[in-house]
Fold:
Amino acid sequence: MQLGVEPPALTSRQPHDIAPELHDAADRPAVIRAILAGIGDYLPEHIVTNDELSRTVATNDQWIRERTGIRQRHIAQPHETCAFMATRAAQAALANAGATAGDVDAIILATATPDQAFPATAVRVQAALGARGFAFDVSAACSGFIYALSVADAFIRTGQARGVLVIGSEVYSRILNWQDRGTCVLFGDGAGAVFLRRGEGNGTGADTGLLSTHLHSDGAYGDILYVDGATGRHDKPAHLVMNGKEVFRHAVTHMSETIDEALAANGFDHSAIDWLIPHQANMRIVDAIGKRLHLSAEHVVVTLDQHANTSAASIPLALSVAQADGRLQPGQLLLLAALGGGLTWGSAIIRL
Structure:
């Protein structure tokens, strides 16, 4: 299915599901919208199951599945760098949109695991694609894709770009302590991408495209999820460190709040959501958010069991899976939400 070619008629919700004040758009001037035109992904070929992982760390399949919902994860091989995977996902997104590198004005790549301190991984992708314009990375941990979407939306709305690639690409396997069963079982590698192109709407919730984004951070909680080293800290092993209980508590609270925030900003209630696509961190978090929103599991896209937590790549990977299996259809309303180290969190609401 090719997304965003032209504004489609609503198919998944009846007009009464749109806030009354949004119906009368006859006198509204046209507004610029970022249209979700294409989606793509890349997953490393090598898959590590829970049983395989239990051979090297004190854990087992039942323990992991019961606590996280994860059954397997993809692990990058040496040639599958952040840039390599991001490029493959970007190429797939462009193909899905019927676009070429010449249609790309900007590339925004969300990652916490870049190939180099600089140049940005995004410019490596730009070179591999043969694209022009400008490119840069965004670092907001697991919220990175939402942050990157927000920046891309601003570029399109202000006329600085007509076509933007937004990519999440992560190789967390290279920052894990593989002897720490509390963290190493949770993560995987992969990349997902979307291509956004300029479109127009009436400024209502019935418009096709990215309706709004909502970003937050609170540095006071930076020590509950972090990587303990970097280029400037050779005294640290650069391993991921996490206080799981605290992360769980903040994830459920903040992701639920920012979902409500996005709905309220656009005049919707929970029943308007066709698909909730949350950051894929832990099945218990996903379930708790669904319960708070009174949203049935049939309206939540879950890829956690297959991919584990791929950080900034998890939401675009889930989008790609849902598109490939036919769940995503024109006119549907998508709600994306994530929380990551920082703490950072945010949401985005999109009409296909």
About this structure: Residues 4-23 have pLDDT under 50 and may be disordered. The longest helix spans residues 244-265.
